[in-house]
Amino acid sequence: MKESVLKSIAQKVGTPTYVYDASKIEAQFQRLQKAFQGVERLRVNYACKALSNLSILRLMKKMGAGLDTVSIQEVQLGIKAGFEPSDIIFTPNGVSLEEIEETAKLGVQINIDNLSILEQFGTKYPHTPVCIRINPHVMAGGNSNISVGHIDSKFGISIHQMPHVLRIVENTNMRINGVHMHTGSDILDIEVFLYAAEILFDTALQFKDLEFLDFGSGFKVPYRPGDIETNIEELGEKLSERFHRFCKTYGRDLELAFEPGKFLVSEAGYFLAKVNAVKQTTSTVFAQIDSGFNHLIRPMLYGSHHEIKNISNPKGKERFYTVVGYICETDTFGSNRKIAEIVEGDVLVFHNAGAYCFTMASNYNSRFRPAEVLWYNNEAHIIRKRETFEDLVHNQVLIDFKEKVTV
Ligand SMILES: *Cc1c(COP(=O)(O)O)cnc(C)c1O
User: Fold this and answer.
1) For the chain, which end, N or C, has fewer CB atoms within 10 Å of the first or last residue's CB respectively?
2) Residues of each domain in the chain carrying CATH 3.20.20.10
3) Considering the entire predicted model, what is its pTM?
4) In the CATH scheme, what is the homologous superfamily, with its name and number, of domain 269-393?
């Protein structure tokens, strides 16, 4: 997106504000489709925990994506945004049987990752189609916080437990219509991904009613200039070819599914914040913005890198800054960053602010969560208003201590 556009959005809407570029989301979606054009039946289910604004969901629907959800509330958001329940897959971890039942009743594809739930669900609803999430025990990516396929992970049913799964399926007359894996974020080595895929193929051959294979996500996107990213094109070529061979062996053409979050929305997002103060200390120069980890927690939570630029003075002489927030504890966005000279009142933009940014925002320090803007067809659309004091107190009940308290 053009910095001049971001600047004018900051002026009109104020800060802090998230801006999403619809054309980038569309471009990523098309890139994935193109990489897998050799597959007849490709399904891309957007993992909406990355960014779940209703208008973003509607954009995904318009592009032809399905939806990957992890809570019944995400399912409800998807339906509200216009998805058919049959376009939605529910891939929870550690949720109650009741939540799974409720979601299944809506007509959503269920994906189960726990033997005990599988047995209970299968016993109660013997012929309902169910997908199972396997854990192939492959260590993908370098970040142990976001790598979920390894041996210690809480996700998926271990491939070593397949005999038990098969017994449950037989005993309960379940219909397993899909097999799924999601090895977590930051796949750099396509060979590792393909190795995990082999395990999925092996597992899949043990089920006779399959309609789809779901390879999850974990595509890495670039955060800095020159960063390596998952080579989607190479993956597409290799996996499509392997998938064809699998379908021949299996005896039927299946659907190939993915559920990208970050890949579709990370780079489309920009976070705009204003510099409240420039503070010179003995060790550094701090640029203090009108936000904090209450609005963008990824740097503090995962140590993630977000490029930071000064769009009020883009051509200014570069200096070193540590960009911090206004939260009353350490909330560093970036240390020792080279940024065009900052004066108080300047607007900074943070890149890669589409995925896991707004959805992780909170009201810590009793601040309002940011506004959200969708840049679509060269126009800015407000898709979430900035909160107000009313929103902060909306659900709170103020006790009048003079009266008797009843619960
Ligand atoms: C979070 C999640 C995704 C999306 O992961 P990204 O790294 O954002 O692409 C996909 N599938 C499942 C089951 C998830 O929990």
Assistant:
1) C
2) 36-260
3) 0.95
4) Lyase, Ornithine Decarboxylase; Chain A, domain 1 (2.40.37.10)
Q: How far does residue 49's CA lie from ligand 1's centre (Å)?
A: 8
Distances (CA, A) of 169 to 72, 83, 131, 176: 25, 30, 12, 8
328 in catalytic set = yes
Place of tokens 């107190």: 393
Going residue by residue through the chain (407 aa), what tens digit of pLDDT does each one get? 999 999 999 999 999 999 999 999 999 999 999 999 999 999 999 999 999 999 999 999 999 999 999 999 999 999 999 999 999 999 999 999 999 999 999 999 999 999 999 999 999 999 999 999 999 988 655 554 445 556 567 889 999 999 999 999 999 999 999 999 997 656 778 888 899 999 999 999 999 999 999 999 989 999 999 998 999 999 999 999 999 999 999 999 999 999 999 999 999 999 999 999 999 999 899 999 999 999 999 999 999 999 999 999 999 999 999 999 999 999 999 999 999 999 999 999 999 999 999 999 999 999 999 999 999 999 999 999 999 999 999 999 999 888 776 67
Q: Which atom of ligand 1 is nearest to the CA of 186?
A: 7
How much distance in Å is there from the Cα of 234 to the middle of ligand 1? 20
Every domain of the chain with CATH number 2.40.37.10 lies at: 269-393
* Those residues with Cβ within 8 angstroms of residue 204's Cβ, 6 or more apart along the chain or in another chain: 179, 210, 213, 246, 250
Q: How many Å lie between the centroid of ligand 1 and the Cα of residue 259?
A: 6
Q: Which residues line ligand 1 (CB under 6 A)?
A: 47, 49-50, 68, 70, 91, 182, 185, 216-219, 259-263, 355
Q: How many helices (H) and strands (E) does the chain have?
A: 12, 18
Catalytic residue among 48, 131, 247, 328: 328
Among 25, 31, 43, 68, the mutation site with the greatest number of ligand 1 atoms within 8 A of its Cβ is: 68
Neighbours of 200 (CB within 10 A): 20
Candidate of 91, 259, 266, 356 to mutate for ligand 1, largest count of ligand atoms within 8 Å of Cβ = 259
Q: How far is the centre of ligand 1, averaged over its atoms, from the C-alpha of 185 (Å)?
A: 7
Is 310 in contact with 348 (CB distance < 8 Å)? yes
Write down the CATH superfamily of domain 36-260.
Alanine racemase (3.20.20.10)
